[in-house]
Design brief:
five-stranded mixed β-sheet
Length: 168
């Protein structure tokens, strides 16, 4: 399974691709950040994020896309920007019939580090170790995108079984 992880944001949108399956060694594919200038109007910033994500999706050709689920934040403006960028990712995936999974930050931390309350340094270090990288990807948005992809590979079968049980 080839997963494109997306850590949505308007200023920095982290992207990272990982391939693998539960119980197998994970393979690092690519990592990066799509940036947009805070000086631009929001619609132009969203267009830049969209264009960047289109390039990544066309280059990587993922089997699925994992996006961080937007959660309530103290800063409502920041939450809105994150939600807008996440919406772009969801729309692009739907247009291409690519399955999408939303993972909460707690799920991602737990899947990657074993603790749902791990800090960014711990997540970055585990991403580095799990993917056998020489260093932690910078900025943190890119490491978070790889963590999302790793989480999806690890948790997707479990989520599918839970969802299947709910439908019965």
């Amino acid at each position: 399974m080839l997963v494109l992880g997306i850590d949505p944001g308007l200023t920095r949108c982290g992207v990272g691709a990982v391939s693998g399956a539960p119980g197998q060694i994970l393979k690092f594919i690519a990592v990066g950040v799509i940036r947009s200038s805070a000086e631009l109007p929001v619609e132009q910033r969203l267009l830049e994020i969209s264009n960047g994500l289109i390039e990544w999706i066309e280059k990587i050709k993922p089997d699925s896309i994992a996006v961080e689920r937007v959660f309530a934040q103290a800063n409502r403006a920041s939450a809105m920007e994150t939600a807008q960028a996440a919406g772009i990712a969801l729309l692009l995936a739907a247009q291409r019939n690519i399955p999408v999974a939303l993972h909460t930050p707690t799920e991602v931390k737990a899947a990657v580090t074993g603790s749902g309350v791990a800090g960014k340094p711990q997540v970055g270090e585990m991403v580095k170790r799990l993917l056998k990288l020489d260093e932690i990807p910078k900025p943190a948005d890119s490491a978070d995108a790889l963590a999302l992809a790793i989480c999806h590979i690890i948790r997707a079968p479990l989520k599918a079984r839970i969802e299947s049980a709910r439908l019965r």
